[in-house]
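Tokens as discussed.
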């Protein structure tokens, strides 16, 4: 869930709280053999999880990568966390693809959005 060269340049929409997010921040190793294929498969799998809401991704020129996955409820997040293929990809990530990473999971209690092209009115604080 952390390499999105074709991702649209727009954030995932704001959802009605509460919902959950998983923030995965990583620095990759130089050898990324097999990473793209596995990442594509993980994206395919997570989209099938009932309650999966979307994903945002950003990467700095220096190589820090941040992926935020959004989930409707804790059950959806647990389904993703415990998926057998996802667990195998996590193991491979630790042995092959990541120098380091952090994972933060949070329950969102407040959410709003702004878009210059949104004609529904002004942004809310």
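Sequence:
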């Amino acid at each position: 869930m952390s390499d999105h060269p074709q991702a649209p340049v727009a954030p995932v929409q704001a959802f009605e709280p509460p919902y959950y997010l998983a923030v995965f921040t990583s620095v990759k190793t130089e050898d990324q053999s097999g990473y793209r294929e596995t990442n594509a498969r993980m994206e395919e799998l997570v989209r099938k999880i009932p309650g999966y809401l979307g994903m945002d991704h950003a990467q700095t020129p220096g190589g820090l990568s941040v992926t935020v996955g959004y989930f409707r409820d804790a059950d959806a997040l647990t389904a993703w966390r415990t998926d057998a293929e996802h667990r195998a990809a996590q193991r491979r990530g630790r042995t092959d693809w990541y120098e380091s990473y952090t994972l933060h999971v949070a329950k969102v209690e407040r959410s709003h959005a702004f878009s210059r092209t949104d004609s529904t009115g002004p942004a809310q604080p």
